[in-house]
Amino acid sequence: MSALTPTIPVEEPAAADDPGIVIGEDGLARPAWASVDPLLREYYDTEWGMPVRDEQGMYERISLEAFQAGLSWATILRKRPAFRAAFDDFDPERVARYGETEIERLMADAGIVRNRAKIRAAITNANATLRLRDKGGLADFVWSFQPSETPAPRTFAEIPTKSPESVALSKALRKEGFAFVGPTTMFALMEAIGIIDTHLIGSHRRGSSGVWPA
């Protein structure tokens, strides 16, 4: 199970022929984690798994995935407006210039996750993002690890937590100076930005990214 699929109580039993799928009041089939909390449901229906191909958007996703480590994605999602305000909307050029003054400001900001190592990683990764412009940019770099095929899970148990491509991406980003980009975290990133499609077979969002067929 990826980092983006928190444990959420199921509002009604899953269909017997498609474990893990919940039919909502609107008649749409979603995974259990996206079936109860309105914020997670909106995120799933409109954003999760959709392609992100711009530098700032990619840097933000990598940053938030790092902050999510050890926490639920729902926690990060609720704090995302505060994160954006605290990190200058994740503009890598501005974050790259952060020093000790900004680190202490962030450590005092109750609206975000106050973890010094993760804050420093966000600054480290902003600088690494700028350096990658000489190699085509962060977004193209990450998308270059798109596999030739995507998982097609019918149940949660069939969703991997990492892949050869996420391991390779992790190693490549670390080589470029990135931090908090482990294989599991990178697999979750790849799910979230459409590089792979791990929507369950039967979900109304399967194939919605346009990257992979339904």
How would you portray this structure in words?
It holds the Pfam family Adenine_glyco. InterPro entries: Adenine_glyco, DNA-3mA_glycosylase, DNA_glycosylase. It comes from Brevibacterium otitidis. This is DNA-3-methyladenine glycosylase I. This protein has 214 residues and is mostly helical. The chain has nine helices and two strands. The protein has helices at 38-46, 55-68, 73-86, 92-95, 100-107, 116-131, 138-143, 164-175, 183-192, and strands at residues 21-23, 29-31. The chain has a two-stranded antiparallel sheet. β1 (21-23) and β2 form a beta hairpin. It is globular, with a radius of gyration of 17 Å.
Q: TL;DR of this structure?
A:
The chain is mostly helical.
Main features:
two-stranded antiparallel sheet, 2 strands, 9 helices, 214 residues, 3% strand, 43% helix, mainly alpha, globular, disordered N terminus
Order of strands across the main sheet: 1-2
Share of helix among residues?
A: 40-55%
Q: Major beta sheet, specifics?
A: 2 strands, antiparallel
Gap between N and C termini: 21 Å
Residue stretches low in confidence (pLDDT < 50, at least 5 long) are 1-18
Globular, elongated, flat, extended or rod-shaped: what is the shape?
Answer: globular
Q: What is the mean pLDDT?
A: 91
> What would you call the quaternary organization?
single chain
β content, as a range? under 5%
Count every helix, treating DSSP H or I runs of 4 or more residues as helices. Answer: 9
Total number of β-strand segments?
2
**Series of H and E elements:** EEHHHHHHHHH
- Classify the secondary structure makeup into a structural class: mainly alpha
Rg over CA atoms: 17 Å
InterPro entries: Adenine_glyco (IPR005019), DNA-3mA_glycosylase (IPR052891), DNA_glycosylase (IPR011257)
Protein name: DNA-3-methyladenine glycosylase I
